[in-house]
Write a structure and sequence with these properties.
single chain; alpha/beta; Rossmann fold; four-stranded antiparallel β-sheet; 27% strand; globular; binds adenosine-5'-triphosphate; ATP binding; ABC transporter
């Protein structure tokens, strides 16, 4: 049953990809994630962590089962509706930052909110960039920023619309240890300040211990 007090409910979620030789990548995932909860997602390479994140974020449609995020049944939506549903509901932080190179830091944060129709997108983006310590970098392009600074912009972009759920896929994977540690501190601090739930894919046991709960994927299932 779907639980209304949960930000995420997943029920018997399956994902099969490939038409010639179909591979069942997710094989019956059940999980609930509460409001404000932080969850580390561990598992060997190829176990399906990124695929589960793609399904929870609405970037990939489950082949069967049910995914509900913030009260909305993702499995009942078509691709266009999913794209709209993601906006503002889910923030995503990836290993490789994925900032738009032709936009300044502020535009990278503001433009998704403008697409969402938020009138104060510019002001909010400036506030959010200040919250991640980049008030002096608003007009810089990604190529003019360090890796750690680019990830700060990505965190600001993810959190500025105040999503209920933040999904982070190895957010420190492209950073040196010291910068990575600062990015993790920042991500947890911003999550705390905004009350978002966090699912973070990591191979780092110390980072997993900072989360309220640890889920481990084994061969397309949660152990
Ligand atoms: N489009 C696709 N078609 C077929 N198989 C795929 C496709 N995308 C991913 N896979 C397979 O699904 C499995 C799970 O991949 P996924 O990226 O979710 O794993 P992961 O646990 O995130 O791995 P890693 O830690 O290496 O990032 C892998 O065996 C992968 O090869």
């Amino acid at each position: 049953m779907t639980r209304p007090d949960m930000v995420v409910t997943a029920r018997d979620v399956r994902l099969t990809l490939g038409s010639v030789k179909p591979v069942e990548i997710l094989r019956g995932i059940d999980c609930d994630i509460a409001a404000g909860e932080s969850v580390a997602l561990l598992g060997a390479s190829g176990s399906g962590k990124s695929s589960l994140m793609a399904v929870l974020s609405g970037l990939e449609r489950a082949s069967s089962g049910q995914v509900t995020v913030n009260g909305l049944d993702f499995t009942s939506l078509d691709e266009d509706a999913l794209a709209v549903a993601r906006r503002g509901r889910i923030g995503i932080v990836l290993q490789a930052f994925h900032l738009l190179p032709t936009m300044t830091a502020q535009e990278n944060v503001a433009v998704p909110m403008e697409l969402q129709g938020l009138a104060d997108a510019r002001a909010r983006s400036a506030d959010e960039l200040a919250a991640v310590g980049l008030e002096h970098r608003l007009d810089h392009y990604p190529a003019q920023l360090s890796g750690g600074e680019q990830q700060r912009v990505a965190i600001a972009r993810a959190l500025a619309p105040r999503p209920a759920l933040v999904l982070a896929d190895e957010p420190t994977g492209n950073l040196d240890a010291a910068t990575g540690a600062r990015i993790v501190d920042l991500l947890f601090a911003r999550r705390e300040a905004t009350g978002a739930s966090l699912v973070i894919i990591t191979h780092d046991p110390a980072l997993a211990r900072r989360c309220d709960r640890v889920l481990e994927m084994v061969d397309g299932r949660l152990a």
